[in-house]
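Hi team,

Below is the intake form for Probable transmembrane protein from Asticcacaulis excentricus. Please confirm the fields before the structure is written into the shared record.

FORM ID: S-0412
PROTEIN: Probable transmembrane protein
ORGANISM: Asticcacaulis excentricus
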Amino acid sequence: MTALSFVRTLRTRPWLSRAIALALGLGTLLGTLTDLRLSQSVLVAWNSAAVFYLIALARLMMTANTADMRRRAETQDVGKWTILGLTGAAIAVCVVAIASELIAAHDETGLSKGLDLALVGTTIVTTWVFVHTTFALHYAHAYYIAIRRAEPPPLKFPDADCEPDYLDFAYFAFIVGTAAQTADVSVASKAMRRLNLGHAVFAFVYNTTILALCINIAASLLG
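The structure came back. Fields below:
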């Protein structure tokens, strides 16, 4: 992907662009102007940007109507796989930072150790919500892109007479992320099955990693 197409991809996603700018700017400031460890700077910057982005998306999801969703699907069709790739890369960096922070926290005591573990716990939650919210948006846009092209809907909801909103797709995404199944929503296209498979595998790997990290946190607290 060229730099120009990457810029074009971010330009169609203003809130994501702002979140990336916030993460980079805050991370740089913390790394140069404070005594925080690199892992601490990365995690604080990530959490700040992720919470900022999730609040913006929550507002969007609660207020958007079907016409808004169709319009966003049209503008955000380009670069969707790049966004998922960037999401995966960001999560990988966070997991490495979490592991580094847990190693550093093992030798600390008292308030310092508690704050480090609280930072790790917060990161686990924000990252989990961020991942599945990103997939929810992707599912929604894939659905309405298919509708725009007069193709059969790639997802079939039980109440077929109504048009699904963002919360319906969030429901689907978080069910996949927590239970690795699709509940009462049927997958009806090859492309969606592949995306769903990738989501399920991604969720399994992340959940397994988080379980291991939580065991490590418990051991640190007991130690």
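SUMMARY LINE: The longest strand covers residues 155-156.

Thanks, M.
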